[in-house]
Description:
The chain is an alpha/beta fold. The chain is about 45% helix and about 20% strand. Strands 2-1-3-4-5-11 form a 6-stranded parallel sheet, sandwiched between helices. A 6-stranded mixed sheet has the order 7-6-8-9-10-12, sandwiched between helices.
Amino acid sequence: MTMNRRTLTSAMAAAAVAGLLPASVLAQKKLVLGFAQVGAESEWRTANTESIKSAAKDAGIELKFSDAQQKQENQIKAIRSYIAQKVDVIAFSPVVESGWDTVLREAKAAKIPVVLTDRAVNSKDDTLYVTFMGSDFVEEGRKAGRWLVEKMKDQKGDVNIVELQGTVGSAPAIDRKKGFEEIIKADPKFKIIRSQTGDFTRAKGKEVMEAFLKAEGKKINVLFAHNDDMAIGAIQAIEEAGLKPAKDITIISIDGVKGAFEAMIAGKLNVTVECSPLLGPQLMNAVKDIKAGKTLPKRIVTEEGIFPMEVAAKEFPSRKY
Ligand code: AHR
């Protein structure tokens, strides 16, 4: 008789029931990971979702995936449903930093390990999660600030900056602002004259930049956008206002998505600080390690670079997201 995958699995199940299979074979049960994603707000997030889905497939891990549409209550609901389904590991990228302790305690009580990916929580109890893997957002803000300080070192008068912040209360918005300000405060000529959230989306980035331009017009020298999508939206607003992006207004953003490289090659964006969304393979390794009883470091930081427009054309072909 020829055995296909299904008959083989049924035969194994029958053998297992009869107690004929060794523990090592039975232990090969597929691990189940519940992942509560923030949403699909940016090119970065889409790449992050793809990375997680494809890495789960490659690792043979069953993935239960939910999209919270940038709402914390949806993420909490998803996490509770993973607890009810008794998944092996829960991972999520918290949309905002605070308000997670209750649901994380529920996961802990159910003995389900939790991994934070991409964004941190600001809980005082770090036993509520196993590890946090992702970028150092404060350092990303510093890199953006250092690039600007160097670029404007010979500028004598004020440098008027407008800032497009990410989602209010999110780790990347809080930390990138902090890192950027930490660097530019060394020289009082750098002035943030407007700062508002664009929620990490192109549409909001454009809308808020239009308002900045209406209020400040040609006074604006620099735009610091907390992600590429908002910068790309803002570039449209700048062009519609009859100004030249990257020339009349210096533009700095964060992520390093392909869209940003295209904008740099077109001469419309000055620089992007890298923030890698390709966390899938690392996450799947962590899931396996946790289930194998290994101890993981509490913090796993992603290594990243910075790409000014001068190198964009050369780097573009090797970009993975
Ligand atoms: O948390 C990472 C941030 O979230 C990225 O910079 C942004 O593009 C995304 O939406």
